[in-house]
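# step 3/5: fold
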Amino acid sequence: MGDGSRTKAIVIIGDGMADYAVPELDGRTPLMVAHTPAMDLIARNGRTGLFRTIEEDLPTGSAVANLSVLGYDPRTAFRGRGVLEAASLGVELAPDDLASRINLICVEDERIRSHSAGHISNDEAHELIAALSEHFGELPIRLVPGLSYRHLLVVPRGDPRVDCAPPHDHVGERVQDLLVQPLVPEAQGTADLLNHLIVESQPFLGRHAVNEKRVAAGQQAANSVWPWSPGVRPVMKTFQERFGISGAVITAVDLIKGLGIYAGLDVIEVEGATGLYDTNYEGKADACLEALRTRDFVCVHVEAADEAGHEQDLELKIRCIEDLDGRLIKRVLHGIEAEGIEAVVAVLPDHPTPIAHGKHTRDPVPVAVWSPRFEPDQVDRFDEESVKGGALGMLEGSQFIETVLGK
């Protein structure tokens, strides 16, 4: 239980919210164009800067970026995205189990058309995963259904030393050029198994009734599986062990839930939280305020802008940023003021997902921290350019979370 007398802390992550200058916006970014009075208020009353969430030698995935946001060193804590999603799904892993994310994707003309099969519904996806489990029943694997296109693959005694291409980073590219490669000779068997799943899933899924109905309705077929981000169970200290505080995480994304579980944070489910533009922003805000009653720290993660970035939908990305600001952040700020809660409030993206190419990048992200512990700087807007003049400068490693928590 949290100590009601201590200052609370809230971190709000707009996944993929940062971007580059967009020609259609006269050289501005979506964050610069979007109407964001709540984020601007945090910047105006707090301190701002940039945060390098992904170092040059690390992969540009959300797992690495969000580990950095919570102050963990990805070099030691990151063991693949799949193990984090396994924790979220309540899947117990043996020390030698390989776990990887496995997407249902759309392949057309031997190229990846969509990393999400048009954001296939849960019911359709679960039917396909059940059918695949039966189809591949003779293989030493376990398929666990997740949310929409996102699912889990477990390979007992699998070798994690394989190179798997994240499908969202390779839309439009040839499947044959993206097949799994072993990084060491000992991993050849695992690579062969994963590639077998990719190749053999396509004719089977292509004939499935779910996909026949989708194609007839003008929707994308979920006609291939795609394993990626394999790894084994990580060892991480909890927030209680590191900082002596209790906490919670609010997200619709299994990856972030799993990260929170390993960090010792309570995972709070919100009805209507989807991971997309139609997520329940208000419900997440209210859950954050409720969690603060009994916990010291709450991390609220919203995926919507990231998905809009992957889809290269500029108008949608701007709308997602504005919804995050007006429907969630504003509601949280009003709530803590109305309830007289003394809290540090921080906002940031985990990484950029530029509209130009729809892929994550490792550029530093803007950050704003409004804290009763320090005087504000002179920055009055929250965007990629404005924060460059902020008092926080360039944050690295665990400096962001230590700034938020006053450690």
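# step 4/5: annotate
The chain has two domains: 8-78+236-405, 87-231.
# step 5/5: archive (pending)
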